[in-house]
Amino acid sequence: MNIASLDLNLLRVFDALMVERSVTRAGERIGLSQPAVSAALNRLRHLVGDQLFVREGNAMVPTPRALALGIAVREALDRIDQVFSDHSTFDPSIARRTFRLLGSDYFSTMLMPDLSRRVLAEAPNVLLQFLDGGPRAMPHVLSEGTIDLTLAPPVDIPEWAAFQFLFKSRLVVAAKKGQPDLAKAGIKAGEAVPLDLFCSLPQVICSTDGGLSTAIDSALHARGRKRRIVLTMPHFHALALAVAGGHVMGSMPSQFAAITAESLGLDLFELPVGGDELDMGMYWHRRYDGDGAHRWLREKVRTVLEA
């Protein structure tokens, strides 16, 4: 490829298509019309000698060549942006941009209602998007630049990722008020469920990928015990609704449980094992350490979740 014929704007179009997987949304992201994005893509295809994106239904699916170029192009644009722009300051009152966050419904429930209220008051033209996803997706989406911030429990992170502690959380057991087996055993809300009873009662767990082993199960295994899992759900809210049905009990983060227990008619109990506190926090790519807009977003998130 002749680098002299490469227009920097073509790289911006390519990067937007990698993020959005749509000609229309890519144009909206960088302020170009759909025909202009299509024309730029055709120029890129000619320069690179590859289709780069192939239409599959309503989506533009990147080819292996595009996937190989994606991270390098994103990093190159970041470097150019840092050279020619001053991102150390940020004026939310006039800013027009989108922030994308990733995490479970645990975090979206705790964070987004208050965060959106605060952001709207200061930055009326900023769009917040919270996407559903677990810690396993974090390195990929942060590296690609498709996500600005992820919220998760402790995970191993690459050296290019940054972490900020937000709060401690632990798991508690939820059951429908007056659950017969717990009532018969004389277990009151706030007390620990005895190990034998805990293992015998049918339970629902939160599992985004259908896996049946959690920190609780590891703690049980260390004691030579196993609980009775009869249902998995991908979200904690769905888990709580199942528990409210009365046929299962389930474990959920204490802060989430406090928000949902009263409205769903749930009692909360202590776990017999696996109830240790965990450090919850936010993760981001270090290339945004000095970015004023990103610092502003992180401060808003911290203020809400540390409250």
From TrEMBL:
Give all residue intervals belonging to the HTH lysR-type domain: 6-63
A GO MF label: DNA-binding transcription factor activity
Q: Which UniProt keywords apply?
A: DNA-binding, Nodulation, Transcription, Transcription regulation
- Superkingdom of the source species: Bacteria
Q: Where are the transmembrane segments?
A: none
InterPro entries per the UniProt record, alphabetical? LysR-type_TF, LysR_HTH_N, LysR_subst-bd, WH-like_DNA-bd_sf, WH_DNA-bd_sf, YidZ_PBP2
Q: Which family does it belong to?
A: Belongs to the LysR transcriptional regulatory family.
This chain's protein is named LysR family transcriptional regulator
